Amino acid sequence: MRASAMNPLTLPVSEKLARYLDAEGRLKGWPSRRTDQLEALRYLTSRLPDGTEWSERELNELLKALHTFGDWALLRRDLYDARLIDRSPDGRRYWKVLPA
Fold first, then answer.
1. Sheet arrangement for strand 53-55
2. What are 22-49's pLDDT values in tens digits?
3. Per-residue CA distances from 28 to 22, 23, 68, 70 (Å)
């Protein structure tokens, strides 16, 4: 999926998070505080398309388009650990967890 097909900005961005975003809304650094990391993860999740499943490679490509610091694996793992995305038991398919 191309970056242009991703959701537009849907969450308000705090002044603190805005410092971590470039002019195109990509995350340009990883916050050191966990509360700021969770805000960044929620922001990234809001940019992912709803109702879609991705392979690990496809999710990596989406995440590459949403940040500039080159660690999509960290983002993928943290999104999963924060329960913002889920995956199949074999780890081959990922999807966005929608709020209840």
1. 53-55, 93-96, 85-87
2. 999 999 999 999 999 999 999 999 999 9
3. 6, 10, 5, 9
